[in-house]
Structure formats: C-alpha cells, structure tokens
Known about the structure:
The complex is a heterodimer of chains A (265) and B (292).
Chain A: H1 6-31, H2 49-55, H3 58-91, H4 97-109, H5 112-125, H6 132-138, H7 140-156, H8 160-168, H9 173-184, H10 186-201, H11 205-210, H12 218-225, H13 232-253
Chain B: H1 8-33, E1 36-38, E2 44-46, H2 50-56, H3 59-91, H4 95-106, H5 115-124, H6 130-137, H7 148-176, H8 180-188, H9 193-221, H10 225-231, H11 242-251, H12 255-282
Antiparallel strand pairs in B: 1-2
Helix pairs in contact in B: 1-12, 3-7, 3-9, 4-7, 5-10, 7-9, 7-10, 9-12, 11-12
Amino acid sequence: MKSPSALARITLFALVGAFVLVPLAQTIVTSFVSTLPRAGIAEGHFSLINYQNILHSPVLQQAILNSVIYVVLNVALCLGVGLPAAYAFARYSFVGDRQLFFLLLVFRITPTVVLSLPIFVLFAQIGLENTPVGIALVHCVFNIPISIWILEGFIASVPREFDETAFLDGHSLPSFFFRHLVPAIAPGIGVTAFFCFIFSWVEVVLARILTTTGGKPITMAINALFGFRTDFGLVMAMTVLALVPGIAMIYFVRNHLAKGFVIRT
Amino acid sequence: MKPYDNRAWFLVLPALVIVTFVGILPLVAVTNYSFQDLFSLSNPYWVGVDWYRNIITSERFYASLGRSFLFSAIVLSIQLPLGVWIALLLQRSRRIVVSTVLVLITVPLVVPWNMIPVIWLNFINPNIGLAGRMLAWLGVGFDYKFNALHTWIVLIVMDTWHWLGLVVVLAYAGISSIPPAYYQAAAIDAASPWQVFRFIQLPKMKTVLSMAVLLRFMDSFMIYIEAFRINAGGPDSATAFLSLDLGEEIQSFNYGPSAARSIVYFLIVLTVAWIFKAATSTRAPVALEPAE
C-alpha cells in the first residue's frame, strides 16, 4: 500500500465532498425557486415564496414544533436512563449483564418496520397515538441502546479512583453523577445527544404509523404536501429547514464525533 | 476486573423498563397475533401456524430474501473498504481537514429518511435533475423506472451517499485510538505500510468495524422507505426487498399475516445478532504489541 501525496488526498476529499454536496445543492436551489404558477412571480425564478409560505402555515409550524418536542423529550429520556445504566455496565459486573447487553444490541438493530404493527396497536390502546410523547417513547427502543453503548465507553475511560475519591468525600451516587461524572464526560454526553438526536429526527416508519391523524412531525408534514399538484419548492424548503438543527449539532460535536465509538465490550 | 455487585440492577432498571414497554411487550403482542386470524382485533380466530406456513413456503419470500442479501453484500463491499480507506487518509491529514471532512460526510445522516429518495429523484430527473440531465447529455439511456440494473445502481449509490459517513466516523474512531508508540515500534521494525495496516490498524479497528458491519448489514438488509419511494419494488419486483413485503401487508392492515412476518424477520435479526456476538467474542486478539 503506497501512501498517496497530500495533493492526491485533498483531491479525493474534494471528490467525496462533491458527492455529498451536489445532490443537496440541487435541493437547496429548488427551495429558493417558485415551482408553481403564481401571480407576480415567474415560475422557475428565484424567490423566497416557499419560506414565506412556511411562515404563513400554522400546520407546518405546528409540525416543526412537534418534531422539536418529541426529539428533545427522546434525547432527555435516553440520557436520563442511559447514564445510570451505562455507569452500571462500565463499573460493575452483575447477574445477566451480558445477556442484557445482547438484548439491547438486538433492539438497536431490529428494523422499525418489524415493530411498527404491534406498537401501533399497543399505543392506540393506551392513548399514546397522535402525540409527540408517543414518538419520543417509541424511539427509545433504538436510542437507549445507542446511548448506553456510547456513554459506557466514555465512563470506562475515567479511572475508577475518580469515583472512589468522590464517594470518600461524602458524595451520594446522584450527587456524584451530577457534580463529578457529568462534567468529566461532557463531550460524551454531547456525542450521545447528537446520535440520539439524528436517529430519532430521521426516523419515519414509527413516526408515520403513530401520527395518522394528528401530532405530525416535520417528516410527515412533508409527506402530506405531496398531492395532485405538488409544490416542490415548498417540499424542498421544508427539507432544508429539517436539515438545519442536525447540521448545527454536527458543527457543535465535530471535534468529538469520532471519539464516541472508542469502545471496549 | 470489575467488582461483582447485583445492586447495579437498580441502575439499569429504568432503561430496562422503557425497553420492555416499547420493545419486549410489542413483541409478545405480535407473537400472539401471529397465530390468529384478526379480521378485527376484537374478533380473533385461532389459525395456529398457518401464516408461518404461508410465508416459508412462498417463493416470493425466498426471492425477497435473496435480493436483500445481495443488496447488503454489495452495499457492504463498497461502503466498508471505501470508508476505511477515507479514514486511513484522514489519519494522515491535518486537524482542520479532518473535522471539515467529518462534518461534510455526516450531513446525509441528518436527512430524514423519507426525504432521501425525494432528493435523489429530483437529482436524477432527466428533465430537471443535475445528474439526470448530465446522463442524458452524455447519451446514456438512463432509465431507473424500467431498467432493473439502473434501479439497483440508484439504490446503491443513494445508500452509499446516505451511510458512508457512519462507516468513516466509526473507522476513524478506531484508528485514532491507536497510541503513537505502535507506529514508532513499526517504524523501528521497518514495517511496510501494508504491514502497519494489517497488523496494527486493522486489529485496533476490529471492534468498531464489526459494529459498522453489523449496523450497515442490518440497515441495508431491511431497507424500506428509501427503496419503496424510488421504484416501489419495481421494475417487475426487481427491487422488492424483505421490508417492502412487510410494509405492504401492514399498510393493508392484514394483522395476522404481517404479525407472523414480523416474527420471522425478528428471528432473522436475532440470528444475525447472535452470529455477530459469537464471531466477535471468540476470536483471539491478534494485535501486535509495541516493542518496549
């Protein structure tokens, strides 16, 4: 294996960048174009009409709000239950720990379409359909395993003496968690939040089956825009808006992105 | 050695309660449905293993299974080497280049899955799409709707666009965890770049790469929304993968048959996870220890 020169490397990275960006570029351009005949705007010309239409649509705004609610709830839930569980896996061995880890792995890789029918029936019976809370709960099935997995790696990299010193200083377990552990693994919390966020934000199968009549997130609101005469400009504008929080999160965790997976099982 | 303490169960309990509620409970319910004919949920009729027999004796099931395996095999054999290669090149690059490339390559991961086919259909549209017009201008008779090979190419390129970032991030995480002492030892031994890769980098990346293989295999094996939107399994069922069959049945609210199919698919997942676990935990470590 010969090591390529810096120039060859940069060329390859540029190609990869182009491969990622060019399909997206067309989407972004379309979002700034009026794609339906409208009075006063030439079809196919630059215009902010699509974004203005979003501002004037309570349905689309509610969808954005629903998405934000469920994703924030989901990340909070996964971090809240994932942190103690990850601590248990990182620091102790206990009856059934390996089996439990395997169970979590299985649920992480179970395709959502396999669980969608029973979850639909179950959630309809207990009144958790058509609400962002239902989506937040249901996305835990793949995000709790992810959060435990990533957090466990970060906690394991903190020396055990760190815990013992804090306990000797008279900290209780909860107080140790919030005052010492969380600050010590702050990048890990960020990376975990990022991955929980993206996997929840982009999931559509469970989100669709749980919001047939109401509580629709952005993804389903976009689906509802398709019809006899689809306003593609509006669809693309909503898509671009749906990318903004994710890209912002990538930017914040960019220096820690790759560290989340230095795992030892 | 970690201390043995069963009180640790209290710490995993909240996570387990939620996973039970949204994972195990639905599986129990669906197992129950899979043995019944449910015209409506209040009117069950016991049919035993009829639905299962229908699935495992149908040719369509094996055809879909084969197509899903083929798709996963192609996807893995492209994305894995490419992702590892990019990660290896990143490792020799400056910090600013690394974070720029990582940020760029992870952008497709935050695109909602139902929008990925919309973006790509727009991109390859022969009238308005950049790629579509380019292909038409080059005189390529590109027809993803009626040419099975072209549909496959679109799906594979689209899936690579979507998921390459995850493989690169995982591979880069593995490489950047290697202490510099390993490379110094290799330099002293005058190891060739290939030997460095084979005996230092690859073994050190093993854990994260096996995770990448598992995640990419499962997600591509059960590809649903993306494949459905591109050509709805066509042309002539050439891209009818496992999930599309299940999705179709759920959409038409065939509770019994789709429950049985869900269970069959879940058993496939369980088998894959088990093979994965067996393969990764029994293999002896082959890491080259640095010379002291």
